[in-house]
User: Which sequence fits this backbone?
């Protein structure tokens, strides 16, 4: 009888029921038993099954799924899902950079390294990353994009700095694309790089970035290699070199590179005894590489820019891009040469100097050129492929800007000039400015406005306000892509 009462009390949720140890425990539902049985086994799925699951997901969902458990997290770091990785080594994200080095350094196929070369912690992490990449058998591409053209190696003795080069060379044997990122420190070993690259199936090499940017353009060590070292790379599509390397002999060594699409040349100066090139060599080069473009970049070349059309340029060059950075002079003869010799090939002109009110900044308005056509207008008229015009550091009349826009129309994809350099027709500037801002967008068939001073890079705004490397390196390195 008592048992029955107890059961009745239990049914009525009596608090006294807790004192009886023999009370039956609640049964688990069938669903709960299945969940408790199956849940641990998600962590014990074979890697091949996890990979099949991950293959069905896009990148974002795959990363989310990797948070299921440790096993899934480990499996997500497989080379097939990380073919391309950009390593950003900056002072503000060293911990993240270390994570990327640890997990991707030994598995990535295409590595792009963006590194602050003047910060000690970033230099240390760059060296650690290069060591990891040197042990990566999957590595096919190594592209370096630095903030500056040299490393701060003051903390390293000569032997240690060479060890960095030795480690970099161990990354080379399996590469199809390689760029030194215009780093001057790396440019002294070009012959060693090419020897290694040519020893392992050189026909697979398609991109070689061997050009440099000099930290001190007035005094630097020449960096060039024996011309014959370039011969084995018969499938090259993109090649960058310094002008020190360029000669008729070098052009002839590219004869077997039938796939060459782009030759990029960096000019800082012309050393004594440099042989230069001839029109005959360029004519032969064009006949063997009919689809190849020449891109010439002139950097801090204060003396050479004044005689560029005499010492460097040749009428038979297949010149498509001319970039001039911080040479403190605009050579009208060079601009006239563009429309006279490259009307069929020229696609882009960038002429960049810091804003100023110096005598040179008024070059387009000097009386000497009053009776001759404006060279930029002639380029816009005669160069039918022109699609980019960037001009900073020189005063320019608004009516000529409108003429350029009218001549090129929507074919001009990029058109930049500083607002402070535009000379308005009216004395008060009010009505003229209004027409000017309406006419150019109308002809370009897109929104357009001059670059305001607040939006200029500091080194363009003032030569003492910024580092020119930070502005020009991203532009010159983009030529490789």
Assistant:
């Amino acid at each position: 009888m008592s048992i029955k009462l107890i059961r009745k009390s239990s049914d009525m949720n009596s608090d006294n029921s807790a004192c009886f140890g023999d009370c039956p425990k609640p049964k688990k539902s069938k669903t709960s038993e299945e969940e408790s049985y199956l849940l641990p086994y998600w962590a014990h799925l074979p890697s091949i099954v996890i990979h099949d699951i991950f293959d069905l997901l896009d990148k974002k969902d795959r990363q989310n799924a990797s948070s299921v458990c440790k096993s899934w997290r480990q499996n997500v770091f497989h080379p097939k899902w990380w073919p391309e990785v950009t390593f950003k080594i900056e002072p503000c994200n060293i911990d993240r950079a270390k994570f990327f080095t640890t997990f991707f350094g030994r598995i990535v196929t295409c590595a792009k390294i963006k590194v602050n070369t003047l910060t000690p912690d970033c230099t240390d992490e760059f060296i650690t990353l290069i060591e990891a990449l040197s042990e990566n058998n999957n590595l096919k591409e190594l592209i370096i994009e630095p903030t500056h053209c040299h490393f701060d190696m003051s903390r390293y003795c000569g032997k240690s700095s060479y060890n960095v080069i030795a480690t970099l060379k161990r990354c080379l044997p399996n590469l199809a694309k390689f760029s030194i990122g215009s780093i001057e420190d790396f440019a002294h070993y070009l012959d060693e790089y090419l020897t290694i690259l040519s020893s392992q199936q050189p026909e697979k090499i398609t991109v070689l970035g061997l050009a440099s940017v000099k930290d001190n353009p007035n005094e630097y060590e020449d960096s060039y290699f024996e011309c014959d070292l370039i011969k084995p790379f018969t499938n090259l599509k993109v090649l960058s070199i310094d002008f020190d390397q360029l000669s008729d002999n070098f052009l002839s060594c590219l004869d077997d590179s039938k796939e060459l699409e782009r030759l990029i040349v960096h000019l800082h100066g012309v050393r004594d005894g440099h042989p230069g090139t001839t029109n005959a060599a360029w004519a032969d080069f064009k006949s063997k590489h009919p689809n190849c473009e020449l891109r010439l970049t002139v950097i801090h070349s204060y003396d050479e820019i004044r005689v560029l059309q005499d010492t460097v340029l040749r009428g038979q060059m297949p010149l498509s891009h001319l970039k001039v950075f911080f040479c403190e002079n605009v050579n009208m003869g060079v601009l006239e040469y563009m429309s006279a010799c490259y009307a069929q090939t020229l696609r882009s002109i960038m002429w960049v100097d810091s804003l100023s009110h110096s005598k040179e900044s008024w070059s387009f308005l000097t009386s000497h050129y009053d009776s001759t056509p404006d060279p930029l207008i002639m380029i816009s008229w005669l160069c039918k492929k022109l699609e980019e015009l960037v001009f900073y550091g020189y005063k320019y009349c608004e009516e000529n800007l409108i003429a350029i826009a009218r001549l090129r129309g929507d074919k001009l994809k990029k058109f930049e000039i500083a607002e402070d350099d535009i000379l308005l027709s009216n004395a008060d500037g009010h009505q003229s400015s209004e027409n000017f801002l309406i006419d150019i967008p109308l002809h370009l068939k897109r929104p357009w406005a001059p670059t305001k001073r607040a939006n200029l890079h500091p080194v363009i705004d003032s030569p003492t306000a910024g580092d020119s490397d930070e502005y020009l390196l991203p532009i010159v390195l983009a030529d490789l892509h």
Residues 1-26 have pLDDT under 50 and may be disordered. Residues 120-134 form the longest helix (15 residues).
